[in-house]
Amino acid sequence: MVAYGGTRRPVLRVHDADTGERIGTFELPAGLHAGPITYMFRPDGCQFLVVAAGGHVGMGSPRGDHVIAYALPDSQIGPLDGDR
Fold first, then answer.
1. Residue 52 confidence (pLDDT) above 90
2. Quick check: is 82 in a domain?
3. Which domain holds residue 23?
4. Count of structural domains, the chain
5. 32 — phi, psi (to 5°)?
6. Residue of 30, 43, 28 whose CA lies nearest to 80
7. Strand ranges across the sheet with 47-53
8. pTM of the model
9. Burial letters for 45-80: b for 16+ Cβ neighbours within 10 Å, e otherwise?
10. What is the pLDDT of residues 11-49, one digit of tens each?
11. Whether 72 contacts 52, CB under 8 Å
């Protein structure tokens, strides 16, 4: 999975890392110009994708002050040992 923003349009785009196919586009309340992060509480736990949507005056995207976390389905969780 690859997730990114970085445009004037306030959206998060998600693609399959192997095929490049778009998995989804999620509307955000402000522009996304920082890199998303993922984390797990423990190896067998749920994986989360977190974005900080704050906008950017120089890019002309909507401004705000939001931190949003998405819980990923189990099928999105890849190997934890770096094999992928």
1. yes
2. no
3. 2-73
4. 1
5. -115, 110
6. 43
7. 37-40, 47-53, 66-71
8. 0.74
9. eebebebbbbbbeeeebeeeeeebebebeeeebeee
10. 999 999 999 999 999 999 999 998 899 888 777 788 899
11. no
Rounded Cα gap, residues 11 and 32, in angstroms: 7
Cα separation, 69 vs 37, whole angstroms:
9
Is the residue at 81 inside a domain? no
Domain contains 84: no
Distances (CA, A) of 55 to 3, 11, 25, 81: 17, 11, 17, 34
Report the distance separating Cα 66 and Cα 54, nearest Å.
6
Q: Which residue has the tokens 């005056």?
A: 57
User: Is the per-residue pLDDT at 60 higher than 90?
Assistant: no
Does residue 7 lie within any of the structural domains? yes
Torsion angle, alpha carbons of 43, 52, 28, 12, to 10: -60
15-24, Cβ contacts within 8 angstroms, sequence gap of 24 or more: none
